[in-house]
Amino acid sequence: MFVYIIRRLLQMIPVLLGVILVVFLIMQLVPGDPAVLLAGEGASAETVERIRHQLGLDQPLFMQYFQYVIDVVRGDFGISLRSNLPVFNEIMIRLPITIELAVASIFITIVLGMLAGIISATKQYTASDITIMIIALLGVSLPSFCLGLSLIYFFSVKMHLFPVAGWGTWKHVVLPAITLGASGAAIVARMTRSTMLDVIRQDYIRTAKAKGLKLRVIIYKHALKNALIPVITVVGLQFGVLLGGTVLVESVFAINGLGRLIVDAIRMRDLPMVQGGVLIASIIFVMVNLAVDVLYRNFNKRIELD
């Protein structure tokens, strides 16, 4: 296990270098000059050129890229062109907010999704099964911003139960977490139902029923554990996406998370902030994938980590 983790961490290095390169090249295609944005529209050509030299924008692209990689290795993510503050510090201010929202959302995803999937699988083709699958289909199809605005209208504007926007108390977490967790719960419910149906048709489940074991014991002790592998994959990917920033929901609820920070940086052509934000999000996503692979082994000892 230790050797496998070390090998995966080493494999992460070229992935992150590729992410930095792709983001760097894409930002070069975005219209506008960061030096002009900093100097102002009425600035002289000499002022703009001096700022370009200070930022290193007058160097060849490959030199800018390699210099940035060297700085990242040293722990320096650069200075934000918009706020003139260290990029890493600004990201660390926003990241805890995104983590809180992601954890709350993934909790809703796991609890509602798995519970609905188990009920649907154990009561196949009944009214409960059909109802759950229709709701799951709606959850997958409904855009997150549409659900978020609907929740704001009913629970904030009409019923005054939760704040319309912002962050700070547990009440601010509820509506955004439900908005994000709903689509994930729908996906997990469909996946849980599918895998549970495959498992409960296996011979060892029939044997357990023939021995007279209670249905609850069969489902939660024997069937569920073997059905969790594909579900872990879905939950892990969903959690990685949430930690990377959820732009639409953060915009709808006016939450200053990582996703909104990256979008604002793209709008202002703040290259250091965009690169730093995407790099942090990529590291989180890769680490979540590694954790998912390790969980595979814990849930099924027959799985070999290659």
TrEMBL record:
InterPro entries: BPD_transp_1_N, MetI-like, MetI-like_sf. Residues 95-296 form the ABC transmembrane type-1 domain. Keywords: Cell membrane, Membrane, Transmembrane, Transmembrane helix, Transport. It is found in: Cell membrane. CDD domains: TM_PBP2. The chain crosses the membrane at residues 12-30, 91-118, 130-153, 173-192, 227-253, 273-296. One of its GO terms (cellular component) is plasma membrane. GO terms for molecular function: dipeptide transmembrane transporter activity. It comes from the Bacteria. Its main location: membrane. It is a multi-pass membrane protein. Belongs to the binding-protein-dependent transport system permease family. This is Peptide ABC transporter permease.
